[in-house]
Amino acid sequence: MQILVVGMGLIGGSICKSIKASTSHSVFGCDIQNTVLQDAIADGTIDGIGSMTDGKYDMIILCLHQRIAIQMVHQSLPQIAPGTILVDTCGLKGRMVRDLTYRCQKVGVHYVGTHPMAGREKSGYYASIPDLFQNANIIVTPVDGTDETALQTVKELAKQMGFGSIVTATPMWHDNMIAYTSQLAHVVSSAYVKDFCMDDALSFSGGSFQDMTRVATMDETMWSALFLDNRDNLLYHLDLLIENLTDYRDALKQRDEERLQYLIAEGRQIQEENVRKRKEIQEITKNRKEEVQ
Predict the structure, then answer these.
(1) pTM for the full model?
(2) How far is CA 171 from CA 115, 141, 258, 274, in A?
(3) Which helix H or strand E contains 114, and what residues bound it?
(4) CA 65 to CA 89: how far, in whole Å?
(5) CB-count exposure of residue 143 (10 Å: 0-12, 13-18, 19+)
(6) What is the dihedral of CA 101, 138, 223, 39, to 10 degrees?
(7) Who's near 20: CB < 8 A, 6+ residues apart?
(8) Contact 101/73 with Cβ under 8 angstroms?
(9) Is residue 255 pLDDT above 60, yes or no?
(10) Band of the pLDDT at 269, cuts 50, 70, 90?
């Protein structure tokens, strides 16, 4: 295929590098930073520079913030050739998927919503790596009107790029789960580091501290927009977290050791069950891969 990747940041750059490393497809890049594009050509990440309005690609992958991606599709759709598969990697789906599916369907373009669950603390093209997606999950969010052949083409490309699991979800359920599994963790990490003990933390910290603080280095412009665009889901899970934290705080205030033990045991049991299910899924996935081989 001839593939255009729009947005050569961490995700876009890594997608280009992964496709070049694991497939025979041709990859072209589009970005507002010409220096990035020239460097990407020089290091073999892309085969050339392209545009959404070129009208010559089998697949276009948008690696942009949701608001920008929607705007670009609206502007460029009349120039995108019928039959093109249009993919986005946005962190939120919601109404976007149904809207773009409908708009694209009217002009013969096949839209598929996806969300690769991979990242690094660093951002931008120069942090991109070819194996970012190895064994990672990718979420696909088909709806009524999603072209089945296009969906299968996207899934096959994801497998070639090394994704470990392809998960299907509705756009709304995707956004609810992202509020819990990603956005809430970023809020907690950002709030956690706002303690005067951070000045001396390195001398007293271990793995749990590193896990809690890792994502506090998030980009404020991107993440504040993501939080607001998923406001209702994030508020629900944040309120639930505050309620649960209040249980621990109240037990401490009341010196209620029995209540603390119960709360800790409850959390441990939930996590142990989660780990058990994860191992089962990993074993099933491993067996399926061995059967295919």
Answers:
(1) 0.86
(2) 10, 6, 42, 23
(3) strand 110-117
(4) 9
(5) middle
(6) -100
(7) 27, 44, 45, 46, 130
(8) no
(9) yes
(10) very high
